[in-house]
Amino acid sequence: MENESYPEAQPRPKVRVLGLDYGARRIGLAVSDELGITAQGLPTLHRANKRSDFDHLRRIIKHYSVGEVVIGLPLRMSGEAGIQVEKVEAFAEELRSRFKLPVHLFDERLTSVQANRLLDEAEMGNQRRTQVVDQIAAVLILQSFLESRASRRE
């Protein structure tokens, strides 16, 4: 049998996942590592207007080579959708059309509670807490999404 020549495998470009905790005044931000295993918080985006918000997100997407986005879906504890869900869905649709990336919605019901519990345990003051709670919520949303994805692959 002849030695067949196979093209060398091209390394797959590593893409990261951007996690968002969407809010009217702030957007918590987190990004995964290149392997999609861990989430790291990024500075919270203090919203100004749609144009500057999307410019900021564009810079993050480019800087971190983001290949997909996950946004926390704020369902009620009963699992029903409220008014905020519609806003998040509209924002997700705008992200999809502007950046041509997959955008996933992920149940975030307990992330704010979990974030505040972590901050209570750290005995963090109210002023500092307001600065980081959105970031921690984004990390929790993204980390939960990554773990959920990994468990489906096993």
Write the layout of secondary structure elements.
Elements: E1 16-22, E2 26-32, E3 39-46, H1 50-63, E4 66-73, H2 83-99, E5 103-107, H3 111-121, H4 126-153
Parallel strand pairs: 1-4, 4-5
Antiparallel strand pairs: 1-2, 2-3
Helix pairs in contact: 3-4
Give structural notes:
This protein is 45% helix and 23% strand. By secondary structure, the protein is an alpha/beta fold. It has one domain: YqgF/RNase H-like domain (Nucleotidyltransferase, domain 5). A hairpin with a 3-residue loop joins strand 1 and strand 2. Helix 3 packs across helix 4. The chain is globular, with a radius of gyration of 18 Å.
Key features of this structure:
alpha/beta, globular, Nucleotidyltransferase, domain 5, 5-stranded mixed sheet, 154 residues
Determine the strand fraction and express it as a percent band.
15-25%
Read across the widest sheet, the strand sequence of neighbours is 3-2-1-4-5
CATH architecture: 2-Layer Sandwich
Our Rg estimate from Cα atoms comes to: 18 Å
| Helix and strand element order | EEEHEHEHH
Low-confidence stretches: none
What's the β-strand tally?
A: 5
Query: What is the residue-mean pLDDT, rounded to a whole number?
Result: 85
> What level of helicity do the residues show?
40-55%
For the report, how would you describe the main beta sheet? 5 strands, mixed
Q: Would you identify the CATH H-level superfamily?
A: YqgF/RNase H-like domain
The level-1 CATH class: Alpha Beta
Coarse structural class: alpha/beta
The CATH topology is Nucleotidyltransferase, domain 5
How many alpha or pi helices? Answer: 4
Describe the global form: globular
